[in-house]
């Protein structure tokens, strides 16, 4: 029998085993307690040289913990971690040939005793019904986030409405902010789950009001230079007012705009137009070089603009013939504007252009109606009324033989004219697109004198105000109501011309040159209660040309 052995001699020419650097964590020791901050120190050696050392916390690394030369030491700020939690530390070292070695894991218990410092200097930069922008000072050097807190119950409870990253000093909150709620905001620094102190607070509330503009020096018995605000119980001055007559008011892009004939608003130099943000007046760039009679906000698919009409030939230093648009940052003309070439009028009229602008829906898309005293609009023959899309004009039939002072969304045009499209209408006309698509129609034989204002009535029909004593066959002193079938007097009327209407807080208000409305004293402003006119405080001591509802946000710092 022959036996063969399976045992072979070990080879004698194998390469030596590959060994990386010697690496160890000098500190912290395994199972150590780390309080707030500590130094992670590593020892790494190799006869081939150490090319790189990486320190990992919980198996994660960032560039601040990669070292290419001694000392291999990193300051660990553990205050961003949750108190009383365990964390792993390990190290990987590489030699000059790229061979790596990992150290044994070190487990540590983190105890956080400090909390991030509270922010300070919190304030509101901007607020409206859909957003608020807050700013603050960062007083901590180790926060991981800031929490934005909000209270709607006078600080009985706070909720975190948004968190932002460390080192931020401003943030915007988007939402729907109610005008009937007072909001208090605070900011808190956070380090992980460790909450720091809260900042000071800012209390914000909305202040709605009815604004009256005209030519007066007092409202409610107190000083108010040509513009005042009714807050529901009393009249108030509006930032010092204007040094001249206010003829138009309109809100646009969160601000109230006032137009007229003045060069100062709240002591600020302006040119016939100014804007109010609830706290102060400011100029609208270079303004316009003549009186402003009308303002209207109008939105297209491309942009939102405030349209301005009056007796001017430039806006923002650019040529603009009696009508221009303001984007919120810059002025631009509307085509070639409107004009009144000499001898082109159908009636004997003074050489003055009065533009009244309103937005209504004539076809599928909203259009802007321009009414006034002119015979040319955008280079086209247009007698005192025209449509514009903000770029070009289009006549509305043959127009009127006298000035149009106001236009409504029916569309109804009112003014001082006898005929529209050659038909007798007496100061009030309606565009009849159903039976005669290109003509104006009369409304119950109109009024006995010019109409300056028109407003929707609750349910159906509308009110007109002006300088007349009759509407149709009815006696009506300066104000009348059309119910869709007939004219009627309105609550006793007034004892002087009515120049403006506005619907504010679900009620109809009128303004003008009267001292009595509904048989009771009313200083140029009155409110309709459904059957008669009521005074609005003691009103003003002069004429009211324009009314507008406007609400603004104001705020104050609280401890």
The geometry reads as: elongated
Q: How many strands in all?
A: 59
- Residues in helix, %: under 10%
Distance from first to last alpha carbon:
106 Å
Q: Could you name the CATH topology of the largest domain?
A: Methylamine Dehydrogenase, Chain H
**Main sheet properties:** 8 strands, antiparallel
Radius of gyration: 38 Å
CATH architecture of the largest domain: 7 Propeller
Structural class of the helix and strand makeup? Answer: mainly beta
Residues in β-strands, percent: over 45%
* Number of helical elements: 0
- Mean pLDDT over all positions: 88
CATH class of the largest domain: Mainly Beta
Low-confidence stretches: 1-11, 342-365
Q: How many domain regions?
A: 3
Concise account of the structure shown:
This protein has about 550 residues and is mainly β.
Task: Describe, in plain words, how this protein is organized in 3D.
- The protein is mostly beta strands.
- It has 3 domains: about 20-110, Immunoglobulins (Immunoglobulin-like, Sandwich); about 120-205, Immunoglobulins (Immunoglobulin-like), CATH 2.60.40; about 295-540, 7 Propeller (Methylamine Dehydrogenase, Chain H), CATH 2.130.10.
- Helix content is about 0%, strand content about 50%.
- The protein contains no helices and 59 strands.
- Strands 12, 13, 15, 16, 17, 20, 21 and 59 form an 8-stranded antiparallel sheet that branches. Strands 2, 4, 5, 7, 8 and 9 form a 6-stranded mixed sheet that branches.
- Strand 49 and strand 50 form a beta hairpin.
- It starts with about 20 loop residues before the first strand and ends with a strand.
- About 40% of the residues are buried.
- The model is unreliable at about 1-10 and about 340-365 (pLDDT under 50).
